[in-house]
Amino acid sequence: MLDLKQLAADLFGITLTDEQLEQFDTYTCELLEWNEKINLTAIKTPQEVLVRHHLDSLSIVLGAEIHPNTRVIDVGTGAGFPGLALKIAYPELDVTLLEATGKKVKFLEHVIASLGLQGVRGLHARAEEAGHMPDQRGQYHLVLARAVARLPALCEYMLPLAKVGGRCIAMKGATAFEEVEMSIEALRILGGRVDDVVEVKLPTVDEPHWLILIDKLRETPAPYPRKPGTPTRKPL
Ligand code: SAM
Questions:
Q1: What whole-number distance in Å separates Cα of residue 29 and Cα of residue 25?
Q2: Which of 58, 133, 137, 155 lies at a CB distance of 3.0 to 4.6 Å from 186, suitable for a disulfide?
Q3: Greatest CA span in the chain, whole angstroms?
Q4: Domains (ranges, CATH) in the chain?
């Protein structure tokens, strides 16, 4: 039986209180219940949710310093990974959960209300739209994404949302290094630079996991992100 409290402490140095552990449990129950009606995750058991969603989300701390009031946006958050799981572990973060599918945003709002969390919200929009909203563009210290798009398109989603001096973290599998190679031109145009690629090892998971750490060095030019669909159809 895997123990989230022990694993979060041993792997990432995160101390979870009983209240936070209960919040993770409630989140798991809601996720599996709603998953019977709307497609939120391919993962079906609480133990798998613990490792592949909650613990994997917490691995973000290997790539970023978490300060109180750090503004975080999770791009294509789906059912809230990694952003909502990170918010439970670090309640002092200000977190925006950006998601293009309305039903998923409804789920996120339901979980946020059920857990009584403050300083976290769903945003129903595409990244290509959010990147031009004055209250979103250039507003975030930390921009996260897991399983949303190949890295050249993901850079176009993420970098416009980051502050200059902020960081983007793309959570990737076996293709991480290949995707970094494909993103050199996108990073140059959008004002980012890969600082490091950090390996994440999770119990019971064999496939490789990597955090691609991207620093935002310069303002992203105004035309980016391009129109919805263009970043994936015609990657930079
Ligand atoms: N990040 C979550 C995770 O790892 O469990 C969800 C991953 S899911 C495979 C990808 C999600 O990204 C979907 O919910 C999809 O609606 C959303 N998405 C894809 N493209 C997007 C875009 N351009 N803007 C906002 N959300 C997007």
A1: 6
A2: 155
A3: 50
A4: 4-233 (3.40.50.150)
Q: How far is the CA of 208 from the centre of ligand 1 (A)?
A: 21
Q: How many residues would you count in the chain?
A: 236
- In this structure, which residue's CA is closest to atom 26 in ligand 1? 76
Mutate to test the pocket of ligand 1, among 99, 133, 136, 148 (most ligand atoms within 8 A of CB): 148
Cα 173 to middle of ligand 1, angstroms? 16
DSSP helix, strand, coil percent of the chain (3-state; round to 5): 40, 20, 35
- 210-229 pLDDT, tens digit each: 999 999 999 999 999 999 99
- Contact residues for 184 (Cβ-Cβ < 8 A; gap 6+): none
Per-residue pLDDT tens digits for 122-135 = 999 999 999 999 99
